[in-house]
Design goal:
Blueprint (H helix, E strand, L loop, with lengths): L1 H4 L3 E6 L1 H4 L13 E5 L8 H9 L4 E5 L5 H12 L3 E6 L5 H8 L8 E5 L8 H5 L4 E4 L13 H20 L4 E4 L4 H4 L6
Parallel strand pairs: 1-2, 1-7, 3-4, 3-6, 4-5, 6-7
Length: 191
C-alpha cells in the first residue's frame, strides 16, 4: 500500500490491547497514522474524524459495505456525522436490503451504492473518481479456516491492490485499510 500511496495511509488495529499489536514487518515503511479500533466502528476514531474535518473531506467510498456489522456501523457513524458515503456492493440488487438494515436516522441523500468485486477490475476507477477518501475495510471471511490459504489470500491481496490502484489513479487523498479477521484467526497453532 505505501509503495502506491506514499504517506497517505491510516492503519487500524482491532483492539490491540486484547488481540496484540500488529507485527512490525507488516507495517508500512513510511510514516502513517495508526488507529486503535476498540469498537465496531472505525468512524469513532477521533484522529480520523479530526483529519476528515480539518481537510474538509465530505465524500468517501467504503468498500465491502454488505459484508460485516463493523463496516455497516462505520458507515452509519460517517452518515450520522454528515459525510457523503458511497458503499460498494457485489450485487446492486441488495441495495434495498442494505438500506433497510441501516435504518432511517441519517440523510438518505448522502448514501449511494456502486458495484465492486474484489476479484473483478470493472467499476473501481469510476467508483473512486469522485471521492476524497477510500475506506478499504473489506476482505474475505470464512467461518472455518480454508484448506487452501489462497482462498483467503488471493481475493484479499487482489482486492486491496484494485482499491489502491483506483485510489492512486483517482488521486484519492487518503486510504484507510483494515485487515481481515483471518489475519488473527487462521494460520497458527490454536492449542
Amino acid at each position: 500500500a505505501y509503495q502506491i500511496l506514499d504517506k497517505n495511509i491510516f492503519v487500524s488495529e482491532q483492539n490491540p490491547i486484547k488481540l496484540g499489536k500488529t507485527i512490525p514487518n507488516l507495517l508500512p515503511k513510511v510514516s502513517f497514522n495508526k488507529i486503535q479500533k476498540m469498537t465496531f466502528s472505525l468512524a469513532t476514531s477521533k484522529d480520523l474524524l479530526d483529519e476528515l474535518k480539518n481537510k474538509k473531506i465530505t465524500n468517501l467510498i467504503v468498500c465491502g459495505f454488505e459484508t460485516h456489522i463493523c463496516i455497516q456501523q462505520s458507515v452509519l457513524e460517517l452518515l450520522n456525522n454528515g459525510y457523503e458515503v458511497k458503499g460498494s456492493l457485489r450485487d446492486l440488487k441488495r441495495e434495498d436490503e442494505v438500506r433497510k438494515s441501516l435504518g432511517t436516522e441519517f440523510n438518505n441523500n448522502n448514501l449511494e451504492f456502486c458495484k465492486l468485486d474484489l476479484l473483478n477490475d470493472e467499476g473501481w476507477d469510476d467508483a473512486a473518481s469522485d471521492c476524497d477518501y477510500l475506506f478499504h475495510i473489506a476482505s474475505p471471511c470464512f467461518v472455518e479456516e480454508p484448506k487452501d490459504e489462497n482462498e483467503l489470500i488471493t481475493p484479499a491481496l487482489e482486492g486491496t491492490l484494485r482499491a489502491l490502484k483506483a485510489a492512486h489513479k483517482s488521486k484519492i487523498k487518503k486510504v484507510v485499510l483494515t485487515s481481515s479477521m483471518g489475519a488473527i484467526a487462521y494460520g497458527h497453532n490454536k492449542s
